[in-house]
Amino acid sequence: MQGNIAESWKHxxxxxxxxxxxxxxxxxxxxxxxxxxxxxxxxxVFAAFNFCSFDDVKVVIIGQDxxxxxxxxxxxxxxxxxxxxxxxxxxxxxxxxxxxxxxAYPESGDLSRWAKQGVLLLNATLTVKAHEAGSHQKKGxxxxxxxxxxxxxxxxxxxxxxxxxxxxxxKGAKIDKKKHYVLTSGHPSPLSANRGYWFGNKHFSQTNEIxxxxxxxxxxx
Length: 221
Known about the structure:
Number of helices: 9
Strand content: 5-15%
Order of helices and strands: HHEHEHHEEHEHEHH
Oligomer: single chain
Largest sheet: 4 strands, parallel
């Protein structure tokens, strides 16, 4: 499974690939994909790493599960393939960008354009069974993505982490807040957003202000 991951990440994550938990995880995922419809396509499981090299990471957004509807998940958190209707969380992300930065609501929900600029769009769990949210949780992915976050925290500086919702905030325990910037808010899902925990967080303008201050190229959201 790890054969699909970009070279820039392999030396960082090789120790994880060799651990028993990851070997068990690989067996589980292979069996699930062989017997059930799972998302994203197997070739896209590590898309977050393939679109954004380790050296280029300057922003990290942490999601939870891949989308579990037909044709939605493309391996990047909150992102969908072109031509797919935007899920509610993504709609609210784009609405916040619209009010925060005055950028028109986009036609495409494919966020690979962000990833190519250094935004790591990392789900805590990288696979899911069709129509069964959370079905691949607690099988080892969380340990793997904790290791990813810890590696970024230890080996890089001045990365902006965007933690949306309680689940993402828990993942933030691996981040050295003396070296990095952590912005938190409610989740962009309608349940949270409609209660006033998402809109107005201005995370996109704040991120660019931090990057600009550190003389790092800003993100074209």
